[in-house]
Amino acid sequence: MFLTHLECTFCGLRHEWSQLQNLCTACQKPLFPIYDLAGAGRTLTREALASREKSLWRYREVLPLPADAEPVSLGEGGTPLLRAARFGATLRVEDLWVKDEAQNPTQSFKARGMTTAVSMAKHLGATKLAVPSAGNAGGALAAYAARAGLEAHIFMPSDTPRANIVECRELGAHVVLIDGLITDCGAEIARRKVAEGWFDMSTLKEPYRVEGKKTLGYELAEQLGWVLPDVVLYPTGGGTGLIGMWKAFDEMETLGWIGPARPRMFSVQASGCAPIVRAFEAGEKSAAEFPNAHTCASGLRVPKAVGDFLMLEILRESKGGAVTVDDQEMIRVSRTVGSTEGLFVAPEGAACFAALEKLLAAKQVAADERIVIFNTGSGIKYLDCYEQ
Q1: Residue 202 pairs with which residues in a beta bridge?
Q2: Considering the domain boundaries, does residue 73 fall inside one?
Q3: What's the domain range around 99?
């Protein structure tokens, strides 16, 4: 294993990886795993990947978990990057792609983060795992905890899509419904975790979910022949995927796999819950909690994200931006995507297709650029959103 230590993303304080860690002990900001990339690069090469399994664990040298430890895996990663030619034609965009994360176990990108996080939690001795979730993260934790033989405690808003609640329960998790938002669920875990012996698996409040998510960046580069796209549109709630990809780009440059060019990163949020968009437009370095958050895209209903400052840095450094989409537009565009591309995308993914229309109209994105949209989950889990 080439993991050397954990480092605070804000103050730089070093932490040991060999014990369970949540946020930085000095400033309560997220921790990043740091690797010996020179050592990792001796066996992890672009050429070596050709013969490796089509899962995210193909990048084992830049993932946590000792080499002699078996990952808790359900075959996650290796999702297709699909040309969206017919939808692109409706916008006169010729080079449009969609990374379809609905083809992961538990039908969302959350499987990526949970395979690495649960693997490390088990390795480091955790027996009871807890997470606040608006839906897909809970389902993923329930699945991977069951696979690992660990307890899962899922706290969900009471209006979470029923499919997610049923999924968690049928996978053996202890599900508690809270009248409130995901932030209220997180607060309840924080109040009880010490007494209950839970390890908190909240987004960016432990160091390893981001490592699974960063493989989105590795796969994207590999699938595009090691040339990153011009534009990435990413639906943003907690933002781990956006943050993870940016970390992956830096690691790949250090490994000598790509150059310094980066995509312009665009955060897509619901108009009813847009803390990152509001902070970006106001020039703020962090995002205040968004009041009265509401949207049918439950994965976007995150009124306050612990990694807000990291997302805002990425958007500005990449010369990207942030855009909102209302719920009606998500549903309208999801039907267009379905009928043109054969993909039943989650509302969060549909928001990115709708955002592309707005960005093209505003001339923030050009029709001749290579554009990648991330669909983070399957619409089948959001049937309530599509009922007529």
Answers
A1: none
A2: no
A3: 81-107+208-386
